[in-house]
Specification:
6-stranded mixed sheet, alpha/beta, 102 residues, globular, 2 helices, 6 strands
Length: 102
């Protein structure tokens, strides 16, 4: 059973979403294992920006943020109301938290 799905597209778009129904404790464990494997196998290598698109519970969002925060200079999360990515985390000067990008 896979309770959460994570895949990387175009080296900077992380597609996320729920899989089989489960409680947050299991979903957090599954998401963590997937991310660890992606990092271990150089699928998530890091870079200038990572865009994240898809649904997540708050506990899962924190697991994802923790796993990718220091791999990328900036993290943008898709906001469907704005139809843009909102920079939620930045370690550099090119992007600032709150910036909107396509």
């Amino acid at each position: 059973m896979i309770s959460y799905k994570i895949s990387l597209e175009d080296n900077n778009l992380l597609r996320i979403g729920f899989g089989e129904p489960a409680q947050n404790d299991q979903i957090v464990r599954d998401a963590g294992k997937i991310l660890d494997s992606m990092i271990e196998n150089n699928i998530l290598k890091g870079g200038q920006i990572l865009k994240i698109n898809g649904p997540a519970s708050l506990p899962v969002a924190i697991v994802i943020a923790h796993a990718v925060a220091h791999l990328f200079e900036a993290i943008g999360v898709f906001d469907p109301k704005l139809n843009k990515y909102v920079i939620a985390l930045s370690h550099g000067t090119k992007y600032k938290p709150g910036d909107l990008i396509d």
